[in-house]
Design a protein that fits this description.
binds flavin-adenine dinucleotide, oxidoreductase (chains A, B), five-stranded parallel β-sheet, oxidoreductase activity (chains A, B), 16 helices, alpha/beta, CoA-disulfide reductase (chains A, B), globular, binds coenzyme A, FAD (chains A, B), redox-active center (chains A, B), 24% strand, homodimer
Chain lengths: 548, 548
């Protein structure tokens, strides 16, 4: 039976589905509609073409309409917008954007991969801001690039500190432009918790980006050359990149009475079918199940779109194909830093009332004695009862992607924090340590589960001190010169056994060091000498960023 | 109950066990004997100190006798060789190497972590070769470094192409020395299969190393300045590094009548206890169970030593502690290449008659359009019935460590090749592709299991052609100019649908391309048009290295 499959959207999800459909079935009739001029382009490369890291525009175009049509023997129609779905008659209505003609095309199966569009709220003055851009596709990119190239841009405002905003900030700085980043929440990179995001803030400032955090845009003035923020201040600028998130392209689905979910996403089942079993939906536009907490959510990233594209083709061809939810593994290069995360963060777990424990460690990316290593700030969230890994975040200059990928893999394998100790990872000095940072995270988390140590978090310690708690800093005096938690005593680790008598046995003794390791050692000593010792997780370094 | 624990060997396994023992128990009496001058040094950094990448010698010394004694409140005695175990009386006899005095020390538990020593066979002339060195510890390193620094060395011979030999070759080249590498087997890096090792061979030659493969050392002449090889040739040299492997330090165990296993390793149970339950053994000296195939083996690497050191301390303190076998995950930097592997290779699986399938892919380490990526040659071995992953090997300039670690993690999680498709790995252009190389390996292996494609291996194709088989190269004609499998027809992928009639339907059609992807696409087309198509796995690139 020759099926006719119509696909709406010709980029990540749509093009992948089309390619796999053809591989699975040489006879199927495949018609792909794309409203834009280009199919199969590298959305994720766009900021780097603007900044010049990717010098050639054609590198962004992975497949051409002609090339892909021929290679996969399919009917690809660009500049063709699908404007309506006629579910009863299994037809779509297409508007040819070259001619404005409308026509119909029937389908046996319909795949929607329309993506998402940048959110553009009705901020006063936005209509007149002719220097304001959003970034989603090649025409957007061309517009931004030509604006930058021809207008001698000196100052730019980026609104929104998500990964696209940060990538644009970096790329504009690379072009010698003075960048101000305006972000309404108190941190960039929402998948991170605040103490982790603080490292990104510090780095952005070091790179010359002016940060306006916790400060929303109030209005635009003077055709967008003046941006007023809620705090009352304003920023003068030559251009604006608006990147405050995306909203699903759901018009087709909505008009066809298909159920919508979270944030207007298209609801699908585990086979990626909408309420209408002949209509599939994939990619940025759909609602997915959060892999960790099971709630419905929207996770607009390229991996899910690609994965779903392949699965949908399989399902249409009668193969087993189940999408198991999205973890949200994400990564961004922010100047010299790599910022990555997987699973849930603390904010999400708190919101959903999911019990968790957090650890923060700061191991070096590879053997300390081999040049080129750098600390990785690694945060792991886990269930203390079962050891289940709930999420991880990492920030550092090198080796960050590897550790997040390993943890994401462990999560797919249902490995616990104890199992992380057992991961036999590749070690030679240029790549890791004999105890890899991920092993170390397993040890530190395992010690909490095994009741080897009690810990408190960076955000709890000020109140503890305010209430008269005893906090001992076990670093060397010279280390305190670069900063310490005020109200702490100082007994270096090496002296702790001799100076035990200085500490009371009837009160909890909080112990703090630089990253948590020596505090742990001190806690073990104290505990075994009959003290109630509690280690400040992640040490002063975590505390410092928590208070950045 | 205060236990007295005696440890033999103060480096990777021994020092780690000691540290954890103290953390677990502040009261235990811990006595650590090390026959060398130094404890807790970075064995793995030694070649890089010789080559100058690590400039300071003291960076190699992680803990000093004094520092560690104080920090962990333990009794550490260097230059103290344990020369006998008196199991009946639970005592060891120690020789103080400063004074040559012998004395006894009792133990409740004894931990042996004596490591392994370089193999030094009785090759004719070896005794007079005063320019011949092995490398295991700091004194060895000092000797090599001073030989190199003071003797105006121009030419060196490295015997043995394992990771230490290759690291030494690189570091000597870094010093401007002309290096010849002599390896008796036909390949370097035994954990790799030959077609993977061939990439390392090519790279070594590019870096100016003279390779003598499949050529053993016959004898040394003229105090080691002339090395005669089995083929009849000889190499003149100013110095020799002998690195043909290690043999377990088993004298103590053997003399104490503890069972020895494979290659003279000390036999232990899953709690790392020898036949004598009060004597534990860990590290390079012990027999471990191969995680994949279950057979006993010796895997002298730092991760196992560190892991076992901690487990042994746990077990002695009554905690749950089971060592689950060793996968052998290993990695080495070889000039600009990273070479890594985990699990079993094809040679091992063949030797043990374990059924397997192999795939070879050559994806780019990250998005092709973003600068800095490089191809990764990734080989995956799996069980076709169950999808179980049996092993993986990877060679490339960047991103290799990450992929092997992800696969090693997947193996610990008992994930199948189909599950690799589902791994949600961090994607942004500088780090990966929307389908990561590991996902891709999952797709390619999954397609074999799902009977989407049949494949043959690089080593099968010459015979197929010799027997009159039809092999179609589906690359563009211009690509063939850089080399092709002789005896192949050329029908570019784009023309295959039109030129089907040129091919017979009654014979198998073998299809080949550059890396296997287009061959797969062509196979799918051919199969669905009623041909029996078989793809040459890994394409011409794999074939080429297989025949290097
Ligand atoms: C600048 C930028 C950087 C990014 N970087 C990353 C990154 O580093 N990592 C990552 O994981 N993700 C990244 N993404 C997100 C990633 O590109 C998306 O998640 C992915 O492309 C989603 O695939 P999709 O198929 O759902 O939508 P898209 O790839 O956007 O494709 C949807 C297509 O459908 C077309 N379309 C919509 N409606 C219709 C219609 N009615 N008729 C015809 N055609 C229609 C659209 O024109 C569009 O071309 C980035 C996105 C952008 C914009
Ligand atoms: C040059 C080099 C590079 C390496 N690179 C890597 C790498 O990149 N990755 C990797 O995974 N592994 C690497 N290794 C291997 C790694 O160092 C070992 O696997 C690890 O050190 C084994 O730990 P161990 O405790 O068993 O033995 P060791 O660390 O060797 O410690 C054993 C100690 O016991 C002492 N000893 C022996 N007998 C006695 C006795 N009777 N009395 C007292 N003391 C005794 C020895 O003097 C020695 O110091 C490398 C090794 C070398 C030599
Ligand atoms: C370019 C595009 C059409 C490619 O789709 P695709 O053909 O599915 O993907 P690839 O070219 O990577 O090929 C993957 C296929 O080749 C196979 N393959 C890959 N390497 C192989 C090899 N060495 N040997 C055999 N088969 C191989 C895989 O198994 C897979 O086939 P399958 O799905 O049938 O199992 C689509 O991904 C796209 O448009 N991407 C751009 C948009 C985008 O993703 N944007 C977001 C990120 S910037
Ligand atoms: C240096 C050496 C003595 C260290 O042993 P160690 O104390 O077990 O290891 P580390 O210093 O890495 O510390 C690990 C401990 O600190 C804990 N830790 C690490 N970071 C922490 C943090 N941020 N917060 C709290 N605890 C932390 C870990 O949980 C672990 O403790 P545990 O085993 O009780 O769970 C030993 O590994 C050694 O001698 N190594 C050199 C030889 C060698 O390994 N050679 C081969 C490779 S070159």
């Amino acid at each position: 039976m020759n099926q006719k499959i119509v696909i709406v959207g010709g980029v990540a999800g749509g093009a992948t589905a089309a390619a796999r459909l053809r591989r699975l079935n040489e006879q199927a009739e495949i018609v792909l509609f794309e409203k834009g001029e280009y199919i199969s382009f590298a959305n994720c490369g766009l900021p780097y073409y603007i900044g010049g890291t990717i010098p050639q525009r054609d590198k962004l175009l992975l497949q051409s309409v002609e090339g892909m049509s021929k290679k996969f023997n399919m009917d690809i129609r660009n500049l063709s917008e699908v404007i309506r779905i006629d579910r009863a008659n299994k037809k779509v209505v297409i508007k040819d954007l070259r001619t404005n003609n409308e026509y119909e095309e029937s389908y046996d199966k319909l795949i929607l991969s329309p993506g998402a569009k940048p959110i553009k709220p009705a901020i006063p003055g936005i209509e007149d801001a002719n220097n304001l851009f959003t970034l989603r596709n090649i025409p957007d990119t061309d517009k931004i690039k030509s604006h930058v190239d021809t207008n001698n841009i000196k100052k730019a405002v980026v609104i929104g500190g998500g990964f696209i905003g940060l990538e644009m900030a970096e790329n504009l700085v690379d072009l010698g432009i003075d960048v101000s980043l305006i972000e309404a929440s108190n941190q960039v990179m929402a998948p991170l918790d605040s103490e982790m995001a603080a490292m990104v803030h510090e780095h952005l400032v070091q790179k010359g980006v002016t940060l306006h955090l916790g400060d929303g845009v109030q209005s635009f003035e003077a055709n967008g050359t003046k941006v007023n923020v809620t705090s009352g201040a304003h920023v003068d600028t030559d251009m604006i990149i608006l990147s405050i998130g995306v909203t699903p392209e759901n018009t087709l689905a909505k008009d066809a009475d298909l159920a919508l979910g979270v944030r207007g996403t298209i609801v699908v089942n585990e086979h990626l079918q909408t309420e209408d079993e002949d209509i599939y939906a994939i990619g940025d536009a759909i609602q997915v199940t959060d892999y960790v907490n099971g709630t419905p959510t929207m996770i607009p990233l390229a991996w899910p779109a690609n994965r779903q594209g392949r699965l949908v083709a399989d399902h249409i061809n009668g193969l087993q194909a189940t999408y198991n939810g999205t973890m949200g593994t994400a990564i961004a290069k922010v100047f010299d830093l790599t910022v990555a995360s997987t699973g849930n963060n603390e904010k999400t777990l708190q919101r959903l009332n999911i019990p968790y424990r957090a650890i923060h460690i700061h191991p070096v990316s590879h053997a300390g004695y081999y040049p080129g290593g750098a600390p990785i700030a690694l945060k792991l969230l886990f269930d203390e009862q079962t050891g289940r890994i709930l999420g991880a975040q990492a920030v550092g200059k090198t080796g960050v992607d590897k550790r997040i990928d390993v943890i994401a893999t462990a999560m797919k394998g249902n490995l616990t924090v104890h199992d992380l100790q057992d991961l036999e990872l590749a070690y030679a000095p240029p790549y890791s340590s004999a105890k890899d940072p991920v092993n170390m995270a397993g040890y530190v988390a395992g010690n909490i589960m095994d009741e080897m140590v009690e810990t408190v978090q960076w955000h709890e310690i000020d109140e503890i001190i305010a209430n008269g708690g005893i906090v001992v800093d076990v670093r060397e005096p010279i280390e305190r010169e670069a900063g310490y938690i005020s109200g702490t005593l100082n007994i270096p680790l090496g002296a702790i056994r001799e100076r035990l008598t200085e500490l009371p046995k009837d009160k909890a003794i909080y112990v703090s060091c630089q990253v948590g390791l020596r505090g742990y050692l001190a806690s073990r000593i104290l505990t075994q000498h009959g003290y109630k010792a509690i280690n400040v997780d992640g040490g002063y370094k975590t505390y410092k960023y928590g208070h950045y």
